[in-house]
Amino acid sequence: MKMFAALLALLAVPAAAQNAQVYYASNAWPVQVSGQACSMANAMPGEASNPLTLAYDARSGEVSLSVETTDIVSGLADTGTLDLAIVLLDNGKIKHDDGWGWRSFGYTRQGDVTRFTAHFAGERNVRQLLTDLSSSKHIGLLYRGEVIASTELASIAPSIDKLRECARQTIAAG
To answer: Which residues does 11 contact at the CB level (< 8 Å), separation at least 6?
Structure first.
């Protein structure tokens, strides 16, 4: 049943990712590959977690982090950018890790859902982001001091390892 739910989650990804092939099957965080890009998303976000997607473009060496939420003020335009704080909870020995600070997130609104996306470039930034996500229990986005999105990161570490592996293999393949 859990595998069926994970497959349903794969069907819910945007049309551009629908041509993706499953690289690593996981009930929690499946990894897909499409061309030079590898991506993963939480398969069953649930009520306590917002949908989160990581896309790793092997050619550019860039990771995009996207989070969808309905918990944002309705006065936003349909598209734009916002500075949001990234907070990681229980990141190794650090209970409240706000070391990523404020990042510029592009956003698009569709009905009540707003999708926020930030890009992380450079080998050091990408490595640190993936390491922090692997060793944390939660990620939150804050707007004006209020949490607008929170995603549980349970069972994400094996999938992040596979995401890295997928990116290395797409570079080696061509």
So the answer is: 18
Burial of 165 (0-12, 13-18, 19+ CB in 10 A): middle
pTM of the full predicted structure? 0.84
Question: What element of type H or E holds 4?
Answer: helix 2-11
C-alpha distance from residue 6 to each of 31, 84, 152 (Å): 11, 29, 16
In 3D space, the residue among 135, 155, 151, 153 whose CA is nearest the CA of residue 26 turns out to be: 155
Q: Which residues contact 86 (CB under 8 A, 6 or more apart)?
A: 98, 100, 101, 102, 103, 118, 139, 140, 141
3-state helix, strand, coil in the chain (%, to 5): 25, 45, 35
pLDDT of residue 165: 95
Residue 49 has pLDDT above 90, yes or no: no
Closest CA to 27 of 140, 131, 155: 155
